[in-house]
Amino acid sequence: MKALGQLPGWWLVIVLILLFAMSAVGQDADKKTPPAAPSEEEASQALQKATQNPVANLITVPLQNNTNFDIGPFDRTQNVLDIEPVIPVRLSEKWNLLIRCLTPMIWQPASAEDQSPSTAQQKLAPSSQTPATDAAQARLEKAVQNPVASLISVPFQNNANFNYGPYNRTQDVLNIQPVIPANISKNWMVITRIIQPLVWQPYPNLNTGGEYGFGDMVPTFFLSPRNPSKLIWGVGPAFTIPTATSTVLGQGKFDVGPSVVVLAQPGHWTLGDLVNNQWSVAGSEHRPPVNQMLNQYFIVYQIKKGWFVTSSPIITANWRASSGNVWTVPFGGGVGRTWKLGSQPVSFQTQFFGNAAYPTGTSPWTWRFDFILLFPKLTPAEKKLIMEEQLKKLEQEQQQNPEKK
After folding, report:
1. What is the DSSP letter of 381?
2. Is 169 exposed, middle or buried (0-12, 13-18, 19+ CB in 10 A)?
3. DSSP of 243-287, one letter per residue?
4. Distance (Å, rounded) from C-alpha 303 to C-alpha 286?
5. Which residue has the higher pLDDT, 18 or 323?
6. Are the C-beta atoms of 312 and 299 separated by less than 8 Å?
7. Among residues of the chain, what percentage have pLDDT more than 70?
8. What is the pTM of this model?
9. CATH number for the 131-377 domain, one of 1.10.150.130, 2.40.160.40, 3.40.50.1360, 3.20.20.60?
């Protein structure tokens, strides 16, 4: 699979500047008394109309799949999955800004030139294919564990936080966090890492009910060398954008601060640490100011056949909280594997954490599950091997079905 139409890392910078300016304009929006709640039928009709309106004040995440049949002389099938999140941002009482991002994921059949008889006749012995394939797999396994690798990835990370609140309920946070590297010069690249949470927040003082929706978006930009030494690093700004769909799902503040990641990958190991601290600089004056730190250290040991053991807890500190409620300090770990699901490289990992320290009323332990779509950049030799494997499959299909083209 080839990821065509890669997004540059700089498009988000413009969006962030706009959002920063807008936050001051719309910060008094929550002062007004909300209108009376519509009936269930009226709400259903309004939602039906909003789904057909491209500029409605509605957060959506459309997944549009286009299957194009009979491509090329072999009548193959092209497939394009468009991921198109739409996020409205309030500018004022009369104006909204809608941010629409289109990211295509494409399966593109090989062209006729690549399927020429002369190419099809070139066979490699299994012994000559193995080293290149193994080397590519080893590079991919290490790149998965590197936050600033030159690797496009789309992680889906689910965090189930158990025994939340006095009724021991479960809070759930699904983080959708695409990572997009972009080369800006011969020696440097910028890695854009976006975290968009989808949150189920149970009411803390009730044994039923809660709020479900988007949390605050957290984009980070790392400047990192394209050809690092044994010590790999990245540095850049981290932001929190108040995109939450409910006051209980976000902070209501625009935050900014520095972020740094440092790691090394000796042998089968990956050892590193990612740290950032953010302060609120704009947002609703009715929400408390923010000063918070995040520290995620990660330890990974690669085993065989893509398997690995890992520990990557996320330590947080709310510097403005009362004594005894500042720190969340988890300990734990788990296992994972990197492999191919069909022709698509993927990775998963599952980890359990117990919190040695945590604020009153929050969760004492967490189950985290990650599923990651990977889009590695292939070398010419790796592309040739993949092409030859596809040609062999075509030949086998033609031999088994000689009546077909």
Report:
1. H
2. buried
3. --SSGGGS-SEEEEEEEEEEEE--TTEEEEEEEEEEEEEEE-TTS
4. 51
5. 323
6. yes
7. 80
8. 0.69
9. 2.40.160.40
